[in-house]
Amino acid sequence: MSHASFITRANLRSPSAHAGQILAMSSAYFDLLGDRFTLHAPGATLAPYHRPMHWFERPWPRYMTACARAAWLAVSDRKRIFLTRDIAIALTVVLLGVRAVYEVHSEPAGKLPAAMFRWLAKRSNFKLVCISRALFDYYGDRFGIPESRRQVAHSGVFPELYLPLRLLGKTALRKKLGLPADRLVIVHSGSLYKGGAELFGELAGAHQQALLIHLGGKTEECEAWAAHYLDRGFSNLRFIPHQPAETVREYQVAADLLFYVSTKKSPIYWCTSPLKLFEYMASGTPVLGCRLGSVSEAFDDSLGFCFDPDDPESIRAGFETFLREPAAAAERAANALAAAEQRYSWHRRAEAILKFADGSF
User: 111-120 vs 87-95: helix axis angle to the nearest 10?
Assistant: First the structure.
């Protein structure tokens, strides 16, 4: 395979899932390709394979700079494969007759991106990676992109990062994190603004002795939700603002149960492939999770305990099944870990995308 470059105008120092996903995939691409892979992004150097671009506070100058970098590289090396999550960068490369693989995480955000997709759909040097089957079908139906130029690649995880924590064990991790050794600990990690926190009470209320911990979001968001539940008489919920990824993994492994929830309030519930779900699977901890929209493509009752977020009683029912059937909980957690290792690792995802892009690497 020739060289491959991922080009983005995103701020990769942000704690966002967008930045985290790009950094994870870039690391996986580099592990597979070595010096044949480069990441081009604004800001100071982040890794040996990172080729920095000038930083602008406003997004549009960053976007134009990224397009200019893509054009320069495309002219310099016409065999290079370009990977990106920015549609204008893909358009720039394709216009120059070079191959572009665009990774899509939602439907087009406006008329201009939609027009770009309609034009790109007719170009044989444009391919599309979709993070869910729902998006795969959507882009085929709406824009007529041939199936041979579309690929489903769910989000992923580095399962190897969880192995030392699993070997260390829950007792040691709870001591390090200051968690009680004699209480059932339930952990939820991720954003608060996409919806779902309103359902925490269904789970916390089902077992008053359990401790439900949320990790993530801004301090003011956490304070607001903590006050919300205290006003309603819940004393067994903790809301902890954004933490480093290493700390989040420690909580996930230290927990007895992980809680995944989404609702139709999230505009991407129908097509998402949430990072935290695959992190949960790699932790080896049982998962109580909703099956809503595209999440059902990767999560079912063989991997955890499922519930319907439109039916709060099903949360309690799933939780009671978890409590009642410890052997089933252990088996499903083991199945989820195997799926994370065999199907949803970032390295396997990177390998599949590179083969889709070029046929070999």
Answer: 40
Contacts from 238-242 at CB under 8 Å and sequence distance 24+? 238/211, 238/212, 238/213, 238/214, 239/214, 240/213, 240/214, 240/215, 240/216, 241/216, 241/217, 242/15, 242/215, 242/216, 242/217, 242/218
User: What tokens does 279 get?
Assistant: 């992190």
Average pLDDT of span 313-332? 96
As a dihedral over the C-alpha atoms of residue 336, residue 339, residue 345, residue 347, rounded to 10 degrees, the angle is: 160
CA within 13 Å, CB half, 337: 17
Q: Which residue is listed with tokens 């809503």?
A: 292
Flag whether pLDDT at 348 surpasses 50.
yes
Q: Give me the DSSP letters along 2-18.
A: --EEEE--S-TTS-SHH
Find the Cα–Cα–Cα–Cα dihedral 180, 186, 191, 196, rounded to 10°.
-140
Name the nearest CA neighbour of 86 among 139, 136, 121, 41. Answer: 41
Task: Report CA dihedral (140, 143, 149, 153) to the nearest 10 degrees.
Answer: -60
Q: What is the mean pLDDT of the chain?
A: 95
DSSP tag of 345 = B
Q: In sequence order, what E strands does 105-227 have? A: 126-130, 150-152, 185-189, 211-215
Average pLDDT over residues 264-280: 94
166, 229 contact by CB (below 8 A): no
Angle between helix 17-33 and helix 346-358 axes, rounded to 10 deg: 70
CA distance 4 to 359: 13
* pLDDT value of residue 361: 42
DSSP helix/strand/coil, 226: helix
Over range 133-152, report the average pLDDT.
Answer: 97
* Chain-centre distance for alpha carbon 143: 25
pLDDT at 192: 87
pLDDT at 75 over 60: yes
| pLDDT at residue 237 in the model | 96
